[in-house]
Known about the structure:
The protein is mainly β. The chain folds into three domains: 5-305, Neuraminidase (6 Propeller); 332-541, Sandwich (Jelly Rolls), CATH 2.60.120.200; 549-648, CATH 2.40.50. The protein is built from three helices and 51 strands. A hairpin with a 5-residue loop joins strand 31 (355-356) and strand 32.
Amino acid sequence: MRVLKTVTSDRAVRLVWLEQDNPDKPERRLFAYGSADGLGLRALPPAAGDLARPLLSEDGGTVIFTQLKARPEGDKTAYTPEIFRMPWAGGPAQSLGPGMAVDLWRNPADNSEYVYAVEQLLPGNPARLTGEKLLRFRLDQPGEKEIIWTATPLGTTQFQLSRDGQRAAGLFPFPKAALADLTNQTLTPLAAGAWPALAPDDSYASAMLDGSRRRLRFLAPNLDPGWELTFMGASGWADGGLLHPRWSNDPAVLAFTGPYQAEGLASDLCLVRFRDDLRTIQQVVRLTEGRHAISPDAWVENGSFSLTALPQKPVVIPRPAPKPWPISQDSLGFAWDQARSPVMPFPVTPGGFATLSRSFGMDASGGWFEADPATAAKIGQECAGSSAWSMELILTERQTPPPLSIRLAALMLDGGREAFALYRVDRKLVLRLLLGGTPDKPAQVHPVILSNLAIESDRPVHVALALRNNRLACWLDGQMQKDFQLDSSGLSAWGAGRLIFGDPTPYGSPWSGSFERIAIYSRALGDDEIREAAAVAAQSVETRTRPTRHKIKAVLLAQPEPDPSSAPNQLATSLWDVQQVSSGGMEIRRIAVSAWIRLQGRAVPSSWPAPGQPMELTLESAGDHPELEGVPAVEAPGLDEEMPRYFNAVPLTPPPP
């Protein structure tokens, strides 16, 4: 083990962790290390098994761990977990009863120590264990249990308490990272990321890994927008990724595993020391070499008396509750928010290679979405009767070079005419409207150049349009762009048709984009209503972060065997060897890359080369794509659970009709 004088100021350190040499088998061994007790590095009983989440008590004298007791249950894994304790110096393990321990806490009032645990684990993925309720019991009185949290399920491998026991950072559940107020049973969302950890003082500062697993994102109450620390160039750090961050009992010292490198999947125990304001990495120490460590917990002598320089016990100002959307039900003909949102009264059906976006919107890069015919007919008929129309939507695009002409949203009437059609034409938004329809003025399609709109990759833009009589208004992000006086009016030619989002027959460069919060009205929204709609849209997207996009050159090592299943949507995960990194900061190593192979029951053409051949890839961390969670996938041989997982971020192109 390495010298710890700098990172811990020569104070004693104890660590416990698990090691899993074979990623294909659940057997894990429990290990411990003490820097000043003469015991050194050693394995602890019990024998290898399906162990989870080792923890050290506040005085460093007791080790807590869980046996999961996993068993197959259909296509999932079920658990009957049991918690154990043992002395730091070794000895027989003593059962503390059923459940999985997630953290330990010392009550400052009487110094009694509590085990926080979930009593039951939900069947599912062993890499993302989830419990339904959180309880606690005194370490010396395991039979007397108290329920602490029931508001949401919670992830059990990523949970950490503040020193006063009033706050906890974790997943509630995956992938929802949040700061929980255990007293009021409320959640404050944290930034996008994985492995949220909470500083062990009362600053309520949290840290989590970003999608690249190379940076830590920090958030502290009322300090907006937070900050990031990268380990590249840090003193004592060899370049590579990191996992399993967990604060020790000292808020200046955090334990993690890494660095993850191309030459293998070994992950060693590491400690990082921060400046007391958590804004600078002072030193990183890699304690071991060549191990396969996971889930470390560290104890530092006298660490429980240390504080950050951040305010202690800050008043946590909760974010305002999301404002209701749609902003009005008056003359509302269609409303669609997100696939996981209850605000989705009208069904939509994907076509082509359409998928869900990372924010669960309509990703129309490779296809389109269509509303049910009854909804389309209702909109056409009601707008014809009112001679008024409004539409709002959140549009998110990726850089697309001209020439480009794609229909974003349209009501296509029988016979192929467009009642309305919003286009992206090169760098402009263009609207085509079918106006007139009286004996004096036959119906004609009127094209209107609405506004220039430069694509800023992955930035959501709120677009609102309102039409009444011959006045058309265009708004972007709550700011009016132009007020048009048209030379024709009336929507009497509108009627039944197809309400489509995306373009089955795009022209020009392949376009990539998605839609959320689409609302269509048979009246013109007022200016104040549009401003309110834009404010509601901004509130819904203000906490989103853009994914880190990696451009690399890699060699395909292995692909999965085809799966004969009839799942309409399916991913394939392949094994790659990274050779060159152009952008994004990925390390040179082996990675797993997922890509669509089946959508809407159709095979997605593969662009992968033959094994052994290099290829340029554009990837994003799979952790930045929660919409992929639960999608059936086939995997190549040789993949490891701890291997970095990425998603092929090249937009799909529509299949031929």
